[in-house]
Design a protein that fits this description.
3% strand, mainly alpha, 16 helices, three-stranded mixed beta sheet
Length: 351
């Protein structure tokens, strides 16, 4: 895998400090006995391995290498793993160039990771590994799994397997299609490279964004923090962001499809889990939490699930999974932004 060697933004953050700060600020896990914690850890490890076969069967994707065991972590361990992955993704180093600024940005990043850490159930990190050999790693955050299954009153073993089906699908997506990592890296390199934009150019783009907001000409996907981000980006960066957003929408929608497509034979209470999980996603949050979620892009992430799932559903219904898998051929067969909303356009262009 070719790393994003030209990235610059990541070198402004003290990533080790970010991990340490996040670990200090993290919310405590829900109370659980040693037996309950051990049972959850063992169940998740077994479910991650058991998910590989049905995921391959449903998707038709066949990675060359056998699946490696998942890493079952607590919230603090996830924060440290996430900070290391972000360092790699953004071209950061062990030691930032400016120590003081690195500590400031590291503290800010750690606070964000601490907030996110209580909501992450699992994650496939394609950038994980050591040195030049980064083979990816599947992380499952067992305290959060326990918290959600209690909150929604779900059968623990079923829910743990259901979560693993989603995350293992991500692992299969990347291991069966290794080019995806380089595709992400190239987009990240553009997004996080230092820019030489004149301040007047950035100001002009911000002014245009404000004008469109006032006139009501901003579509839903460019509103809020995402629209503000686009307003200060150059055209190449906007295109890179679109590539990442479209890829994320495809990956999440495809994984959401798979976790339900396995059916009751694998997860007996799958329909109950889906219904209660979707109800949980749709609940209104307190105003402050809604603001923080918007600033962190959490709601945009949820939109990826629904829009991506609709894209996959419609195409698989029309042409079947085998022909849908043409989407994994290379960057040119990935959907374009407009095709996510109108899957027939992707079918007409690619198939």
């Amino acid at each position: 895998m070719s790393g994003p060697s030209d990235l610059a933004v990541g070198r402004a953050v003290d990533w080790k400090f970010a991990g340490a700060v996040g670990a200090q600020l993290v919310r405590p896990a829900p109370p659980a006995s040693d037996y309950t914690r051990r049972q959850a850890i063992d169940d998740l490890a077994e479910a991650a391995l058991a998910s590989e076969a049905p995921v391959r069967e449903v998707t038709g994707l066949t990675p060359d290498a056998p699946a490696s065991p998942a890493r079952i972590v607590d919230r603090k361990q996830w924060i440290r793993a996430a900070s290391d992955s972000m360092r790699v993704m953004t071209g950061g180093t062990e030691d930032p160039g400016n120590v003081v600024m690195g500590r400031i940005t590291g503290a800010q990043t750690g606070a964000v990771l601490a907030f996110i850490s209580s909501g992450i159930l699992g994650q496939y990190d394609p950038f994980a590994g050591s040195g030049a050999q980064r083979d990816g790693e599947l992380l499952l955050v067992y305290p959060n799994v326990i918290a959600v299954e209690r909150q929604l009153r779900l059968h623990p073993k079923d829910f743990r397997l259901w979560v693993c089906l989603h995350e293992v699908t991500h692992r299969v997506q990347f291991t069966a299609n290794p080019w995806l990592v380089d595709h992400m890296s190239s987009a990240l390199a553009v997004l996080t490279a230092e820019r030489g934009d004149d301040i007047s150019q950035v100001t002009g783009r911000l002014a245009e964004f404000v004008r469109q907001r006032r006139s009501g000409n901003v579509d839903a996907h460019n509103a809020g923090i995402l629209g503000l981000l686009r307003a200060v980006q150059s055209e190449p960066q906007q295109e890179a962001l679109d590539r990442l957003l479209v890829l994320g929408t495809l990956l999440e929608g495809h994984a959401d499809y798979v976790m339900d497509a396995v059916g009751p034979s694998v997860v007996p209470s799958v329909h109950q889990i889906r219904r209660r999980f979707d109800e949980r996603r749709g609940r209104k949050q307190p105003p402050l939490q809604r603001l923080v979620r918007a600033l962190l892009g959490v709601d945009a992430k949820l939109s990826q699930y629904t829009r991506g799932r609709a894209f996959v559903d419609r195409i698989v219904d029309r042409v079947g999974m085998a022909r849908f898998n043409t989407v994994w051929t290379g960057p040119e067969t990935l959907p374009k932004p407009a095709e996510i909303e109108d899957p027939q356009r992707w079918i007409d262009r690619v198939l």
